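4.2 Preliminary Data

To establish feasibility before requesting continued support, the project team ran the inverse folding procedure on a target of 375 residues. The structure was first converted into the token representation described in Section 3, and no sequence information of any kind was made available to the design step. The complete token record follows.
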């Protein structure tokens, strides 16, 4: 039985968001109440005739009462204002029929269309002068990965990091190749700062999968930097949250059984997700974090992730911006964008325009994937 469908024991750590909402008023969850509001609410009863029930039964594969009388758990982040609405029944909807998995789709696309980033005469990493920054290009020690300018800039500093033809398929990258991408990104950022020391704020991000907003299927990182302010969520957290926000959030999720550790790094399934399988990772530096994230990503891919967004938010030096002095070295944000084969899976109007994320996967289920055979 899925832990997201039931309320478990009322002692010890909760086992689902539904149970957590029922227990949030208990004294032991005072710290949780400082960060989140939760409530479970019953929806209007749905009335189905026999033909309607036949359709619903085929779509959801559960009892009639569960379909006709549904409940939703709302979770609100007190500091950031974001809200998520969990209805586990949504996860039972029939998606697209099983077809090729994400890795096979990438392989087939290259076989059918080719890839100029893999082509030795195209944008291959061996073509070092085709696109270059003022300071040149940046390569990994073995020459298999390179950092070049993004020809459609996203910020004052905007580069791409990618590998050779053996590193084309993101879903087949080895750990060493995955880490090498981030190592090259770090070298790229260092070269940028040598050229423009005022570049204080840097984010590296990765679009994974056919429906993740990437225009090129060849595995690559984007590295963006600026000198006026940090990006998006970093500025929101600094403006709205206590200085030790990330550390307190990590401890809170760990106490609820939602976290997993590797050395000095920690990852957790977020109580108030932006979308499915929403994970935050804290690491002291980019390289140890990349190794940890690789294992987490493999666990999520095995559990069905095939389209996602990943960002590594680097802390600026305290002398450059003391607002971030209490931050860990790198804050990683991972969000599953939904099954690329299902039309209903990606972010829609409720998320983009309504400020509420419709969630089908319980955070405790996601935590189980992260903690099971990750490494």
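Position-by-position output of the design step:
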């Amino acid at each position: 039985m899925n832990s997201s469908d039931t309320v478990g024991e009322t002692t010890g750590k909760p086992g689902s968001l539904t149970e957590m909402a029922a227990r949030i008023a208990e004294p032991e969850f005072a710290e949780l109440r400082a960060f989140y509001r939760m409530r479970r609410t019953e929806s209007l009863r749905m009335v189905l005739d026999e033909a309607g029930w036949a359709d619903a039964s085929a779509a959801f594969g559960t009892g009639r009462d569960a379909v006709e009388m549904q409940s939703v758990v709302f979770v609100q982040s007190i500091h950031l204002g974001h809200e998520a609405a969990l209805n586990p029944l949504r996860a039972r909807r029939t998606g697209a029929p099983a077809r090729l998995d994400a890795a096979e789709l990438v392989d087939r696309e290259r076989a059918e269309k080719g890839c100029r980033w893999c082509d030795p005469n195209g944008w291959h990493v061996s073509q070092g002068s085709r696109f270059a920054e003022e300071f040149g290009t940046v390569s990994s020690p073995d020459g298999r990965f390179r950092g070049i300018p993004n020809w459609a800039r996203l910020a004052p500093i905007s580069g791409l990091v990618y590998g050779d033809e053996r590193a084309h398929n993101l879903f087949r990258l080895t750990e060493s190749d995955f880490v090498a991408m981030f190592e090259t990104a770090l070298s790229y950022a260092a070269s940028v700062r040598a050229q423009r020391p005022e570049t204080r704020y840097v984010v590296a991000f990765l679009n994974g999968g056919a429906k993740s907003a990437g225009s090129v299927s060849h595995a690559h990182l984007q590295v963006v930097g600026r000198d006026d302010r940090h990006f998006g969520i970093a500025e929101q957290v600094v403006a709205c949250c206590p200085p030790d926000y990330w550390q307190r959030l990590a401890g809170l999720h760990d106490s609820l059984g939602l976290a997993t550790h590797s050395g000095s790094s920690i990852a957790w399934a977020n109580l108030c997700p932006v979308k499915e399988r929403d994970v935050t990772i804290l690491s002291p530096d980019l390289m140890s974090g990349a190794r940890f994230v690789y294992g987490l990503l493999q666990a999520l891919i095995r559990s069905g992730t095939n389209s996602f967004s990943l960002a590594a938010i680097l802390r600026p030096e305290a002398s450059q911006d003391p607002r971030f002095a209490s931050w860990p070295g790198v804050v990683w944000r991972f969000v599953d964008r939904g099954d690329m084969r299902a039309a209903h899976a990606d972010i829609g109007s409720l998320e983009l325009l309504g400020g509420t994320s419709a969630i089908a996967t319980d955070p405790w289920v996601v935590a189980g994937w992260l903690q099971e055979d990750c490494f």
